[in-house]
Structures are given as structure tokens and as C-alpha cells.
Amino acid sequence: MKVWLLFLTLGMALCWAAAPVLAAPRSQLEPSTADDAARYAVEKGWKYFDRGDLAGALRRFHQATIIDPSFAPGYFGKAFVYSRQKRWDLAETNYLKTLELAPDNTNAYGNLAVVYWSQGKVAMAAPYVRRSLELAPTDPMVQENAAYYFFYSANYDAAWLHLNKAKALGARPDPNFVKDLSARLSNSN
Q1: Each residue of 38-56: pLDDT tens digit?
Q2: What distances in angstroms separate CA 36 from CA 32, 72, 81, 157, one per listed residue?
């Protein structure tokens, strides 16, 4: 009898503790659509990324693309991790998929350009730099990326122009880049 009473008491306590969860609307407990679930996975992915856990971030971003194959931020996150890992082919594939799904994603254009010039394929970066400049000419990161692109293209005057635009818009470029660009400008005159 005592054992049965103990189980009944424990069962009631568990039901009481779980009551707020059981009574909560479904929307408060879990994502209600594939888009919500994919968005949640991407948010978690960036948290892993911010902690330096690239494998965890990649798993979450990949999860988002499985949940909703048309959710561009999942592909962007995967591409970003692959870029950090210098896995250029996978980064390129995922940035291109991002652009297929979200053709006005300025960050994907700029980051795809970085993927190309990081591999010495500077000419392949050109259309992506141009498109990002068309979409967001007042974005400091876009201007800074353009400065890098022109630097790697050996067009130092254009690099300096875009670097100054980036700084005027609030960017704080890498001092080593500014120093290298200044030296190249001095040597070319």
C-alpha cells in the first residue's frame, strides 16, 4: 500500500510539474512549420559558430537544408563554415545554392568572390563583386570586399577608392591591408 501511494504521489507531482508545458500552445513548444524549424536550426548553427564549434554549426545548418531545402540561410551558413575551413569547392557550391534561392543576397555575392580570389581565381570573382556593389553600394563590407578584389586584381587606385568609401561608411579595415595597399600605390607611381 505504501509503495502504491508513493507512486501515485510521484505521478501527481510529475503531472503538476509538467502541467505548464502540457497546457502551453504548440507554437510555444516547437516550430510549427518547416520554415520555423529551419530558421531555428540556423539560429542554433550561428550560436555554435560563435562558440567556435564549426562541426556543430555545420550540423545545424545542414539540418536546416534537410528540413526545408528551399531555405537559403541554411546553405549560406554551410558555405560560411566551409569557407572558414578553406573547403572552397563546398563553399562555392553552397554560396551558389544560396544565390539560386535568394538572388539578392549581397553577403553571398561578396563571400563567393572571396572564395574565388582566395584560390587565385580573381577573374571569376569580378561578376560577384560587381553585383554586390549594385545591390548595396552603401554597405561598408561590400566596399571593403571591392577594395580587396581590386587589390588582388592589381588595380590599386580602384582598391584605394573603395577602401576610402568603406572607411567613410564606418568600416575598420585591417591595418595590414591598408599598409600593403599604401606600399603598392607608392611603388606603382
Answers
A1: 999 999 999 999 999 999 9
A2: 6, 13, 22, 46
